[in-house]
Amino acid sequence: MYSRTVKRPRRPLGALLVAGLLIAGAACSRTHTVTTSDGKVSYQDKGKDAGAITVTGKDGKRATMSFNENKVPDGYPKDVPIYSPSKVVMAQSASDKNTSNLVLESPDAADSIVAFYKKGLDGNGWKTESTMATAQLTMLTASKEQRQVVVQITDSGAKRNVMQVVSDK
After folding, report:
1. Is residue 2 a part of any domain in this protein?
2. 3-class DSSP state for residue 9?
3. Do both 44 and 88 map to the same domain?
């Protein structure tokens, strides 16, 4: 009897190391994207329960939602005042009508927050178009050039929630 010996080509250790690192890096990726015929959805993990989700349609329009980052997004309009002291709870943006949405929490009284926005919007060239107030909610609407902003202050017991939506008309 005879046995046949098959020689296997040698694989360099370096190539195995590189392949292992690439596989490990892909497994630890902090951005995940799913693509379909309608577009794609990307999720970016930013650590400690923070992240961003971006939806891009096949027409190129985008919508992004960031959460638990506790900061105002870099592209947020500079002429829209942001109340302080407050904590950023959520930020959203969409390419459709150039929309930005910011949700804040503050321990301050609603009257102080409303006064801040009235003064801050007027001081940045916004024209207040309407104000609506109830026991739990105050809403301001203002415009500037071809944009509009809606600020909604909601009383939630020990804190106030402030939602700002800025968009093209």
Report:
1. no
2. coil
3. no
Token pair, residue 153, equals 């202050």
Domain of residue 124: give its range. 70-169
Instruction: Name the nearest CA neighbour of 156 among 118, 119, 113.
Output: 113
At which of 67, 97, 120 does a domain end? 67
Euclidean distance between CA atoms 59 and 1, whole angstroms: 69
- Tell me the residue type at 135: A
Looking at the structure, tell me whether residues 89 and 157 fall in a common domain: yes
Gyration radius of the chain over CA positions: 25
- The Cα diameter of the chain in Å comes to 98
The structure's pTM equals: 0.70
The answer to whether residue 1 sits within a structural domain is no
Element (H, E) at 131: strand 127-133
Count structural domains, the chain: 2
pLDDT tens for each residue of the chain, 169 residues long: 444 544 444 444 443 333 333 343 444 448 889 898 888 989 888 877 778 888 999 998 888 877 767 788 888 999 999 999 999 998 888 877 888 999 999 999 999 999 999 999 999 999 999 999 999 999 999 999 999 999 999 998 899 999 999 999 9
